[in-house]
Structures are given as structure tokens and as C-alpha cells.
């Protein structure tokens, strides 16, 4: 399959990888529509790629060793233990991951988008109108443009997905992630080579270091918990959104800070509470399974398709794998129909399996937490194994291997 005019809606990590994929597969004309009018905003968010998944993506040409990263070897789970600075560790597990900074990873992928691709910043797509032989995009400025194929890489609030499956949107899981990034990386145990999970009744906080994009490191953390259903404590979170500091209600911030002060070992409490407020934000947790990854001449990649809760550590892996699979389907197919059927068959089941696993992990790690303080390594091992059991175990923590058929 060669030729065709392709629109990629969304110019983030998934969008840049997809533009690279269809360019390499032989599309005649590729246009990326990114709603942000400058460089995409970087909140210092950390991304972790499981080492085996990284190797597959490196072989496919989507990531490279020169992209700034930091190694992670183990994940240590701890609870507060009186005044012990780091608390008491009750579980350790291998954690062969590579930690990235979202902004620097996006910049690296953006620089790899071929020069012939028309990457348009500040281009807001307001509607997607499919026809039998193509798709018309309508922009906020009133401009219309027709393409042979439109790919939605526009995240969990995807306008392309709404055109494909009206009324299907991510559902609020009932809890939040409070995220932050700090420059304070002094004194990290194991020289920062471990990821740390601080557990408390009703949630946990994952903490690890990431490159800062300038040769140093930041401390990235995300705390998962269910906020009390108290009037005025937080806005309506059922509509997919994220809340930067300026939109957070002080009552919610105060509640989260008190939770950390009361439940975290002193060292980790100081790291989280010392994070500048302007580098923190609230990420309500959602998930979604779509009926298909394709419909007519429309395609979904990344979070525009299935949305898995972050606990599986594979959101960016999935987006990059989607692009890889689309390129492979394009190279193997001999018509639009053939290409899209191959892609849907390759990625739909994987997306559904990841969502199911993430729901199990969310249930046991946030919604129905065990008695962490009573746990020791054997209890932890059994608890972890239970989360990963089931018919979809091939799509496990860190992502589903591209090589599994």
C-alpha cells in the first residue's frame, strides 16, 4: 500500500510517532494538526519504558539510545514506620525500566518527524466528517480540508474518536493522581536507581528520578488516592480534564498535603511537600475501551483509542507500539481496507487487555488497598501475583510484547 493524503490529529508523542510511521510506510502527504500554538507544555511528567519494550521499539526505529534517560533497577514498596527516615520496606521487585522526561522525549520524537511532513501548530480541529472515500476536517478558523485517511492521536478527549463512536468517552475511575516534579534529588537511596512506592491506607505514591532535559535530574512523583466526597473539596471530575495549580481548590491541596504529612516516612514527606506548587497538578484517573481502533477511513492511536489507568506503566509504550503496528499493517496490506483491518486486529485486543489489567491494579492499589503495614515480602509477592493473574496475562505490567501473536 503506497500513497494517499494523511491527517494526524494531535502532535504529541503519539502524533509524532504516527507521522513518522505513515511517512516511512509511503504516504504521499502527511499533515499533523496540533492544537497548541507553540511547543507542547511540559509539566515535568515522568515516563518509564520497560527495558524489553524499549528494545523492541529501538529495533523498530522509534526510540534511540541518545534520547535522554535514567536507569531504574528495582521498585521498593515502603510504609511509614515511626520516625525511620525511609520507613519500612515490605516488598521489593525487579524494575527494569528506563525513565524519561515527557518533554525531552517529545522533543526527540518531534525532531525525527520528516521535513516533508506539514506539522501545523495552533491548528484546532473542531469536527471530523467521514465519507466513503475519505474524511473532511473542519478547523476552528473555518477552514476545511479533505484527506484519504484521518488518524486520531489527540488523546483521551479525542475529536476523531467522537466522530467514530459518538458518545463513547473515558469514564472517571473515582480517584485521582496528584503529580509533581522537584529539583530536589539530594540523598536518594541507592543513588536514585530504585523507584519507590510509598503505601498508605487508600492509595500509594510512586517516586523516581527522571532526566531534566539539561543534563541533570528531577524527582518525579504521582500520588493516587480517592478524595473525600465533601461538598466544595473538588470540582466535578466526571468530564475528562486535568487541573493545574491555578484551578485547584485550596481545600483539596490542604487535604492532600495533610495526607502526606500523616502517612509518609519523613524523608519522602519532605520531598513531596517541598515540591513547588507550580510544578504540581491533579490528574483525574479515567479508562476506556473502544469497540474498534478503526472505522471507515478513520484510525485511533494512543489514548485516543483505549485508555488504561497508569498503574501498568505502559501508556507511552502503547502509543509508540500503535504507531509501529500501523506501519507494519501498512507495509503488509494492499488496500485501505486491508491495512485498517490488520491494524485493528493487532491492537484492539492488546488495548482491551491493558485496560483490564490496569483496572485490577487500580482496585488493589487504590480502591481496596490491603493492610500494607502488616505485609512482608512473601505477602507482597502473593498480592502482586494475584493482580497479574487472568486470561490477559500476556499484556502484563510494562506493556504487551510486540512479538506476542
Descriptive tags:
405 residues, FAD/NAD(P)-binding domain, globular, alpha/beta, eight-stranded mixed beta sheet
CATH superfamily grouping of the domain at 5-41 and 104-170 and 288-368: FAD/NAD(P)-binding domain
Strand order of the largest sheet: 3-5-4-12-13-14-11-15
Cα Rg: 21 Å
Helix/strand order: EHEEHEEHEEEEEHEEEEHHEEEHHH
Number of helices: 9
Number of strands: 17
Note down, in words, how this protein is organized.
The chain has 405 residues and is of the alpha/beta class. The protein has 9 helices and 17 strands. The protein has helices spanning 13-25, 51-60, 102-112, 159-164, 250-263, 266-273, 315-332, 336-367, 377-387; strands at 5-9, 29-34, 46-50, 70-79, 88-101, 118-121, 125-131, 134-139, 144-147, 149-152, 171-182, 194-200, 203-211, 217-225, 280-287, 294-295, 298-300. An 8-stranded mixed sheet has the order 3-5-4-12-13-14-11-15, sandwiched between helices. Strands 6-2-1-10-17-16 form a 6-stranded mixed sheet. Helix 1 packs parallel to helix 3 (102-112) and helix 2 runs parallel beside helix 7.
Amino acid at each position: 500500500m503506497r500513497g494517499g493524503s494523511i491527517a494526524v490529529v494531535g502532535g504529541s508523542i503519539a502524533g509524532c510517532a504516527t507521522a513518522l510511521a505513515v511517512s516511512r510506510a509511503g504516504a504521499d502527504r502527511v499533515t499533523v494538526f496540533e492544537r497548541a500554538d507553540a511547543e507542547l507544555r511540559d509539566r515535568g511528567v515522568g515516563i518509564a519504558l520497560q527495558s524489553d519494550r524499549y528494545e523492541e521499539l529501538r529495533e523498530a526505529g522509534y526510540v534511540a539510545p541518545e534520547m535522554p534517560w535514567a536507569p531504574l533497577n528495582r521498585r521498593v514498596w515502603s510504609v511509614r514506620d515511626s520516625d525511620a527516615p525511609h520507613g519500612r520496606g515490605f516488598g521489593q521487585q525487579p524494575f527494569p525500566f528506563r525513565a524519561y522526561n515527557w518533554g525531552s522525549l517529545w522533543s526527540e520524537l518531534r525532531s525525527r518527524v520528516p521535513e516533508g511532513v506539514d506539522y501545523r501548530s495552533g491548528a484546532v480541529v473542531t469536527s471530523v466528517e467521514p465519507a466513503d472515500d475519505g474524511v473532511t476536517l473542519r478547523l476552528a478558523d473555518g477552514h476545511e480540508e479533505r484527506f484519504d485517511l484521518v488518524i486520531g492521536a489527540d488523546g483521551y478527549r479525542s475529536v476523531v474518536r467522537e466522530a467514530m463512536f459518538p458518545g463513547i468517552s473515558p469514564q472517571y475511575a473515582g480517584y485521582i493522581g496528584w503529580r509533581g516534579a522537584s529539583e530536589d534529588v539530594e540523598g536518594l537511596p541507592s543513588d536514585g536507581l530504585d523507584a519507590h512506592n510509598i503505601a498508605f491506607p487508600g492509595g500509594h505514591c510512586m517516586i523516581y528520578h527522571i532526566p531534566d532535559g539539561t543534563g541533570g535530574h528531577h524527582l518525579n512523583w504521582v500520588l493516587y488516592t480517592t478524595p473525600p466526597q465533601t461538598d466544595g473539596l473538588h470540582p466535578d471530575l466526571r468530564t475528562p480534564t486535568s487541573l493545574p495549580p491555578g484551578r485547584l481548590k485550596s481545600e483539596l491541596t490542604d487535604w492532600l498535603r495533610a495526607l502526606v504529612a500523616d502517612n509518609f516516612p519523613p524523608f519522602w514527606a519532605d520531598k513531596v511537600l517541598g515540591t513547588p506548587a507550580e510544578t504540581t497538578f491533579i490528574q483525574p484517573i479515567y479508562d476506556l475501551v473502544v469497540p474498534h481502533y478503526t472505522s471507515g477511513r478513520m484510525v485511533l492511536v494512543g489514548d485516543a483509542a483505549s485508555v488504561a489507568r497508569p498503574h501498568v506503566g505502559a501508556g507511552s509504550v502503547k502509543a509508540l507500539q500503535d504507531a509501529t503496528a500501523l506501519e507494519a499493517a501498512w507495509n503488509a496490506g494492499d488496500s485501505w481496507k486491508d491495512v485498517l483491518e490488520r491494524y485493528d486486529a493487532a491492537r484492539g485486543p492488546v488495548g482491551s487487555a491493558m485496560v483490564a489489567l490496569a483496572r485490577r491494579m487500580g482496585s488493589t492499589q487504590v480502591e481496596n488497598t490491603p493492610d500494607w503495614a502488616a505485609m512482608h515480602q512473601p505477602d507482597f509477592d502473593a498480592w502482586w501475583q494475584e493482580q497479574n493473574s487472568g486470561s490477559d496475562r500476556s499484556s502484563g505490567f510494562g506493556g504487551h510484547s510486540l512479538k506476542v501473536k
